[in-house]
Design a protein that fits this description.
The protein has about 250 residues and is an alpha/beta fold. About 35% of the residues lie in helices and about 25% in strands. It has a four-stranded mixed beta sheet. A four-stranded antiparallel beta sheet has the order 6-5-8-7, with helices on one face.
Length: about 250
């Protein structure tokens, strides 16, 4: 991220919930943290083709509950549940205790910053024009209901000898407003010219004070706020997070 603040970490404790929810104390904290990292890495490495933007891990005294959000649940579950049983056994081997899996389908992948980044990376691997891939992704997300999208790709774009950076933006992306639900996604495309990094910031509206984002409800709603769930973009005047020069982004 360079000198930029991670949009999710910036909002943890206010509108963003933790992706790991447990208390291990001084004795077990390091062990549980390492297990969470290994479980997430294993899921993304072996089952990343299922389109997984988010993994939540909850712990009780004798079990671990892994909540997986996926755009293609059929790929993750497999025929007759074979792959999900295999994944459960693999995670139990990592955690050393019983693991329960909960699958949530992401009905609108174009409203998930992580899945948008993966989609662009996949198109770059298939040698699609980088400008076309970025503009198409932005257009699709805006049409699906996103209020603002910013995409940055960097590397040897189009096979150029020198690496460069391309940034495209549409709508508002208020990175400094804590109440704004800004989702961040990152992916890498390994091409014959080298690695191209893709960063996606997606603004979905404002969250009311004192409330947190409910990702399970959002996945059921198709990734969009219900009416009244967010204030949406401000119109007229110079509101918070805006300036006369087009908005402080």
């Amino acid at each position: 991220m360079g000198q930029k603040i991670h949009p999710t970490g910036y909002r943890i404790g206010t509108i963003e919930p933790w992706t790991s929810r447990w208390h291990g104390g001084k004795r077990n904290f390091a062990k549980f943290l390492l297990q969470d990292k290994k479980m997430r890495e294993h899921i993304m490495k072996e089952y990343g083709s299922a389109g997984i933007p988010r993994i939540e891990i909850e712990r009780t005294a004798d079990a671990v509950n892994a909540v997986i959000y996926t755009a293609r649940p059929g790929v993750l579950v497999g025929r007759k549940g074979i792959r999900i049983d295999q994944l459960k056994a693999e995670l139990q081997a990592i955690a050393g205790i019983t693991v329960h899996l909960t699958i949530h389908e992401v009905k609108r992948p174009e409203l998930s910053a992580g899945l948008v980044a993966e989609n662009i990376a996949d198109q770059l691997r298939r040698r699609m024009g980088f400008r076309r891939a970025v503009k198409k992704a932005i257009q699709t997300s805006i049409q699906a209901g996103a209020q603002g999208v910013k995409i940055t790709i960097s590397g040897r774009l189009g096979g150029a000898e020198m690496a460069r950076v391309l940034t495209e933006r549409e709508g508002r992306v208020p990175l400094s407003t804590i109440q704004s639900h800004v989702e961040y996604g990152f992916a890498e495309a390994r091409t014959t010219y080298g690695i191209i990094g893709i960063k996606v910031w997606m603004y979905k509206g404002d969250i009311d004070r004192g409330k947190q984002i409910d990702y399970r409800a959002l996945s059921a709603q198709g990734g969009r706020f219900e009416r009244g769930g967010g204030r949406g973009p401000r119109r007229g005047g110079r509101g918070r997070g805006q300036s006369g020069g087009g908005g402080r982004q």
